[in-house]
Amino acid sequence: MNTQVAIIGAGPSGLLLGQLLHNAGIDTVIVERQTPEYVLGRIRAGVLEQGTVDLLREAGVAARMDCEGLVHEGVELLVGGRRQRLDLKALTGGKTVMVYGQTEVTRDLMEARKASGALTIYSASNVQPHELKGERPYLTYEKDGQTYRLDCDYIAGCDGFHGVSRQSIPEGVLKHYERVYPFGWLGMLADTPPVNHELIYAHHERGFVLCSQRSHTRSRYYLQVPLEDRVEEWSDERFWEELKARLPDDVAERLVTGPALEKSIAPLRSLVVEPMQYGHLFLVGDAAHIVPPTGAKGLNLAASDVNYLFRILVKVYREGRTDLLAQYSPLALRRVWKGERFSWFMTQLLHDFGDHKDAWDQKMQEADREYFLTSPAGLVNIAENYVGLPYEAVE
Ligand SMILES: Cc1cc2nc3c(=O)[nH]c(=O)nc-3n(C[C@H](O)[C@H](O)[C@H](O)COP(=O)(O)OP(=O)(O)OC[C@H]3O[C@@H](n4cnc5c(N)ncnc54)[C@H](O)[C@@H]3O)c2cc1C
Fold first, then answer.
1. Is the C-beta atom of 302 inside 6 A of ligand 1?
2. What value does the mean pLDDT of the chain take?
3. Is residue 376 among the annotated active site residues?
């Protein structure tokens, strides 16, 4: 089998890249190791930057998002008893974010791909990229006991943090930058109305809290927990009690509790590999970088990579601009590092590091909170990063 761009992974980055390329007349095949149901069962991100929203509209998959997604013009920051509303719209000259779950984005992209007739091969095992430095790269994969070969011009590695793409780059080529945080997030999804109409990010001496949401009737809450905690130790009752204890009384009183639809603990980590290209293989999204979720940047950085690779590939096929291929990694990384910085900064600002910060670092953390939440310039700084920095032009 032949295609122009072989895409490994049918998560949001693989599906979005596939849709944009398909609409531009570029042939793609997506090879995914899981079933569609498994991919849709993963509960992850929920806040979309303006740039991600615009890209989904450009891909023609935004009808349901524009109907059901919730446009948020602000978020609340609660630190040391002080409550500060971050008016995103006013602070950024009109920009907002959209609350619409990653599961829904993925479902819309899957349906659009199915309707377009473009091929996605699910439940493919042992996917392997070959000849990455040669003129004719190809993938092999197994399905139903048979081995198949997919020849292509380029391979997009959209297969997440545990995927095969990054691992298939020879040792010594990639430089890894990593920061591991000494705590995790316990997340709970529940069919209860959100406690607040906007998201609440709260620092508390018992630990960080995020009150997020997926719709007017579905809430997503997160608690900072020690890395050693196991999800079985957290009954629904214990979760709600701890959440109330970390929220101001008036907010805790409004909290509607109910059975958890999902509960899980995720460790927090920052990771970037450089470069994001090896020969004809391009790493996209979580395959190349991970952020702690504090800045709501994971899915948005994946979309940012897709934006750059899509625009470059269109110019390659339409105008013969193969010189642009070498621009993908530096262009994508410039924005990735800013997203990494913001995610690291928000994590530093709002979490309790206990003994992992010395007295000096704790004072710096307090000074940062004092400065960023009281200075107009500090608030603009947080707001412009939260809604998402602009994409650079591909020329
Ligand atoms: C528990 C959790 C919570 C998160 N919460 C947030 C959040 O609140 N906010 C936020 O912004 N971000 C969050 N993120 C991050 C966000 O979900 C990711 O950044 C986003 O999913 C990246 O999309 P992706 O398509 O690059 O990778 P993925 O979504 O990981 O998709 C990769 C796809 O590749 C497939 N694949 C993997 N290996 C192979 C292989 N060898 N062969 C074929 N296919 C393969 C996988 O099955 C998967 O479908 C969270 C992530 C996790 C894990």
1. yes
2. 96
3. no
